[in-house]
Amino acid sequence: MKYRRLGRSGLKVSEISLGSWLTYGGAIDKGQSEAIIDKAYELGINLFDTANVYELGAAEQVVGRALSKYPRATYVLATKVCVPMGDGPNERGLSRKHIVEQCEASLKRLGVDYIDLYQCHRYDPDTPLEETLRAMDDLITQGKVLYTGVSMWGAESLLDSVRTSQALNLHRIVSNQPQYNMLRRGIEKVLVPLCEREGIGQIVYSPLAQGMLTGKYKPGQPVPSDSRAADPEQNGAMAGFMKEELLIKVEKLAAIAGRNQLSMAQLALAWILRLTNVSSCIIGASRPEQVEHNVKASGVKLTTEDVQEIDHILTGSEAVIETPSARSVTAIHEAQRQK
User: Which key words tag this protein in UniProt (predicted)?
Assistant: First the structure.
């Protein structure tokens, strides 16, 4: 496993990290979840990402319990706050009240004294940015949080955060968690250059485009019955992916993977890691074998010719797929909350 600095901070994180959305505390039982986390730790993954809203706290409990057997200094624990945790007007967003209360709740569920990386899960237009940043800064001062970051924030909001923190002499965010993969590349033009300049690292989610880039979905063939696309509770995050013209393009990537002795998934991960501003790729897994397979992408270097050929094959793909939106993801979170 190779490690990279998280933005301009001194924190080192594994190039491949393990997430827990739609898996732990829900679709996968506790025993299997722990086996997956154990395999990830064994293979050198040190960044474990979760969120308070994943299965309404159950994912945090599973992750915390599984990691409790290991020395605290050997792993980086990341969680998030913002998405509704209840029906009340203050059970959501990035107000000081919600941030402080949810940090305490996450610490208890995770069974730890501090959170390594506490992330604002969405931008909250209803709360003054200064209030949010001061609350996060106070958590760092109190030792409950070591670093802060954001998830699914746009470039303008990120820049406002940097400028406000600088003006108020607050700890700056060190990471951003966007969706990024071969098929959704919207962060490249503006957000990545901004983050490179300001020392903010990307921890990207959905690097395999919800499984689209593994090659499991074939043009002209039915969706595999055991896949995420066949599950009505999970396939909302795949909006825009399941199109015949896109499946045909993705299938052409197999030749590039083959000549590099990589699987399609490993090719997709290596392609993302070509960007130095990417600190880590978050993978999901339902079996330990999937983790073992995907970590082999760490350290793989694609040639310029490989990258150019991928671009040529996928030309126009960003136009085929909708611009990344939080709507489908939020709908899944809301469905989980209503269970």
Answer: NADP, Oxidoreductase
